Amino acid sequence: MVKELPTLDMTVRRILDRWPEVEPLLARLGLDLCCGGVHPLRMAAQAHGLNPDAVIAEILAALGAEARR
């Protein structure tokens, strides 16, 4: 069974709905459900001047998962 992991193509809302435990991490980075959380994580990170790869790496680390590229 393949365990689902968050990706940069998932919307912020989907990530927070599926993994609510990363909400404090995303809030610290300034990423939240503004605009309804409808933007993919990659786009939201870039809009906040963040490196998307670093953001997903932090999320995966918080979930105890290894980054998949």
Number of helices: 4
Number of strands: 0
Task: Let me know the largest β-sheet.
Answer: none
Q: Output mean pLDDT.
A: 90
- Global morphology: globular
Radius of gyration: 11 Å
Distance between the termini: 19 Å
The structural class is mainly alpha
Residue ranges: pLDDT <50 for 5 or more in a row?
none
Residues in helix, %: 40-55%
Q: Into which percentage range does the β-strand content fall?
A: under 5%
- Return the string of H and E elements: HHHH
Question: Main traits of this protein?
Answer:
69 residues, mainly alpha, 4 helices, 45% helix, 0% strand
Could you describe the 3D structure shown?
With 69 residues, the protein is mostly helical. Helix content is 45%, strand content 0%. The chain contains four helices and no strands. The protein has helices at residues 12-18, 23-28, 41-47, 52-62. The radius of gyration is 11 Å and the shape is globular.
